[in-house]
Each structure stands twice: as structure tokens, then as C-alpha cells.
Amino acid sequence: SDVPTVFTPLKIRGLTLQNRFAVSPMCMYSADDGHLTDFHLVHLGQFALRGAALTIVEATAVTPNGRITPEDSGLWQDSQIAPLKRIVDFIHSQGQKVGIQLAHAGRKASTLGPWHSRSIGEIATAEHGGWTDNLWAPSAIPWAEGFPTPKELTVAEIEGLVQSFQDAAKRSVEAGVDTIEIHGAHGYLISEFLSPLTNTRTDAYGGPLQGRAKFLIDIIKATRAVIPEDMPLLLRISATEWMEYTNQPSWDLEASKQLASTVADLGVDLLDVSSGGNNNNQKIQISPSYQIDLAGQIREHLASQGKKMLIGAVGMISNAEMAKSVVQDGKLVGTGGGGAIETTVEVDSEHGTKAKADLVLVARQFLREPEFVLKVANELGVKVRLPAQYLRAPYPKV
Ligand code: FNR
Fold first, then answer.
1. DSSP string spanning 19-77?
2. More exposed terminus of the chain, fewer Cβ within 10 Å: N or C?
3. Which residues contact 349 (CB under 8 A, 6 or more apart)?
4. Which residues have CB under 8 Å from 200's CB, separation 6+?
5. Catalytic residue of the set 188, 245, 290, 390
6. 188 an active-site residue?
7. Which ligand 1 atom lies nearest to the CA of residue 365?
8. Distance between CA atoms of 256 and 305, rounded to whole angstroms?
């Protein structure tokens, strides 16, 4: 029978992925002054051993004050290249591909890692290696009451940051990565620029959508200029900041569709569609397919404009049926679900199912089950290659 799309290769510029599974970037709070460690090698390497076609290294800060926590990874200096290269080389030795997410945490920087804090986002003071007196943002608006007020960036500082993104992109290329993802989501610096709720600037970097997107657009151009022509460029955005209920102008799906059209023409090859994270008062309409549907709507919008940018879906994809249906065109696929929640996959009676995305990004399920890809393959009856060293333990047939 036919191989489900999720186990077919995906070619993006000069990069060919073996299948449609990517490990979504995940901070591990285990770097040493921004340098990736043995923990990262073992942690990321396990996915490459077990079938993930693309593993994306966690949000990696382009300046020291762009780290979410003091233990985050960075690429602001050359000494950070070698530990990244070691991981890249290992993943390549397994025949798989590796990307890196470049980021600046903006006003959400300088927080404590999860096992040092009582709640997510608790601030890291100087005593814990933090820098709450040096947070950067488009406008001097704190995350919430009781949180430090960030400094409004000057134009010169914004230009300096674009340069920092470019320098980090060059270092990524030097380390041998196959692709770069720009982190424009989750209320970190780029996302703060995009939203009218966090960007009240009146200069070229604020105002209408194209102004609020200028920082991102400049970063995309600066990055594209220093990476090889055949290297794909990925961009993660929050498709909405879930503030529509306030009836104030906010970052929403319409804005994301417009942005998607713009960046499709700037050499972004795949839009990784996430959501939320820019506002303490967000009200997420949660369901197992809540973000997959956003991805699907942006994908349809791009198709209607004849634009070729690919789409990645992420969020609560945790079983075989879901992973399969996200990228599958034209087949009825029944129900799936994440944990206790059940979902029904939308079926168009005339055309069967419609793919919502081209790439499936998975985060937490890979932490629970590093062999998620192998398990899905087994459930869907697809044969995948194990590392040669593991051949004496084939997966039992379901
Ligand atoms: C994340 N997430 C995340 N996202 C991102 O863009 N950059 C990052 O560095 C991180 N770090 C991170 C750490 C940990 C421990 C988790 C659990 C999550 C978000 C992640 O990539 C993903 O978008 C969400 O977790 C939703 O997908 P899942 O977990 O439902 O598959």
C-alpha cells in the first residue's frame, strides 16, 4: 500500500529530509555560558538515532542578554561554534539533518530555569546570574505588574541586533547546520516588535504592520545574505497572541496571513506556525488541533496567492493518527488525540482530508518517547531503518 506522506521525503532548497518529523526546538537550561554541553549531545543525538529527520537545536541567543535563562545556549562568540559542531557532526553521522533556532528573548529574558523557580517566568536577579536592569524591547512595557521594565531600543541598537543575528547565522553555517530557524514567536523580541500591544513605536520599526515587521524583515534579509543559496531558512511565528477577546488591535491570524505573504517573497522557505506567549492575559482556545488549524489556514491563504512557502505544524501532536493526518492529502483518517483529549480530523466529503502542513514538529512527545518516529512507523506499518548498531532488536510488529 501507499506510504503515508509523513514518511515521505521533503525537499526544501538543497536539503532533503528523510521524513516529515522534526524535533521542535526546546530549551534544556543546561548550557555553560552559552556553550552547548554533553547533555545536549546525548539529548539531541538520541532523536537522530531514532528516525527524526530534522532536529532543531533550542532557542539560541544572539546576544548574552537575549537568553531566557542564564543557562540558555548562545552563538554570540566564536567559542560557542565548536560544541555546536560536535552535535551537528554526530547527527550527520546518523544520516539525519540538524537546524538551529536563533533568538532574542527581549523583555522575557533573565528568568529562572524551571527547576530553580516556583513558577514559569520568575525573574532571575543578578544574584542568580540575571540581568533585569538590561532587558531590551521595542517599547518600555513590562510583561506584567511586578516585572522589570525593559529598555526601549534605539535605532542604532536595533541595527546592532540585526548584525548580531547575522553574525550568529554565520557561526551556525560554520558549525555545519543544515538550516536556521528565526524565532519570531512566543512573545520574545521579534514577536514583541510584531504586536501592536507591545510595540508602540512611532518610528520606522513601529506603526502599521509593515513597520512592526521591519525588524524581522531586516533579520531575514541579513540572514539570507550570509547563508548558502541552497540552505533553507525557517521562521517560527505565533499565528495569534490570543488577545482577540479584548477587541483591541492585537497580533492575530489576519496579521499572520499578511506577514506570511511578505516573508514568502524574502526567501523564507518554511513557516513554523505556533501561537501565544506575548501576553500574560492571553486566552487560548485550546483543542488538540488548535495550532494545526492555524497552520492550515495560513497554508490555504498562501496557496490562494500561489505562494510556494511550506508550512510546519506544531502543538499536541502525540500519536500516529495525528502525525499522519497533519500532512496527509486526500484520505479519510478517522480520529486521533493527545493524551486524554480526543479530536476528529476534518474531512472534506468531496476531496477527502486536506493537509494542514508539510512538516510535523513535535516537542514534548519526543521527551516522553525519543522513539516516537519509530513507534508511529510501526503503527502505520511503515518500514524504517534502525541504526546498524541496533539491528538485533527490530521493533515488534503491532
Ligand atoms: C519549548 N518550546 C520552545 N519553542 C521554541 O520555539 N523555542 C524553544 O527553545 C522552546 N523551548 C521549549 C522547551 C520545553 C521544555 C518545551 C516543552 C517547549 C515550545 C515547543 O517547541 C513546542 O512548540 C510546544 O511544546 C508545543 O509542542 P508539543 O510539546 O505539544 O509537541
1. SSEEE-----S--BTTB--HHHHHHHHHHHHTT-SEEEEEEEESSGGG-SSTT-EE-SS
2. N
3. none
4. 138, 139, 141, 206
5. 188
6. yes
7. 31
8. 14
Predicted structure pTM score = 0.95
State the distance from the centre of ligand 1 to the C-alpha of 229, rounded, in angstroms: 28
Q: Hey, what amino acid is at 243? A: M
pLDDT tens profile 181-228? 999 999 999 999 999 999 999 999 999 999 999 999 999 999 999 999
pLDDT digits (tens, 9 = 90+) for 293-344: 999 999 999 999 999 999 999 999 999 999 999 999 864 444 443 333 334 4
Q: Residue with C-alpha cell 516556583? A: 118
With a 6 A CB cut-off, is 362 part of the ligand 1 pocket? yes
**Residue 124 Cα to ligand 1 middle (Å):** 21
Read off the C-alpha cell for 285: 482556545
Q: Is there an atom of ligand 1 within 6 Å of 57 CB?
A: no
pLDDT band at residue 386, thresholds of 50, 70 and 90?
confident
Q: How many residues does the chain have?
A: 398
Atom of ligand 1 lying closest to residue 364 CA: 29
Q: What is the DSSP string of 240-285?
A: --S-GGGTS----HHHHHHHHHHHHTTT--EEEEE---S-TT----
The interface predicted TM-score of the complex, written ipTM, equals 1.00
* Ligand 1 proximity of 60 Cβ (cutoff 6 Å): no
**Cα–ligand 1 centroid distance for 28 (angstroms):** 10
Q: Are 307 and 340 in contact (CB under 8 A)?
A: no
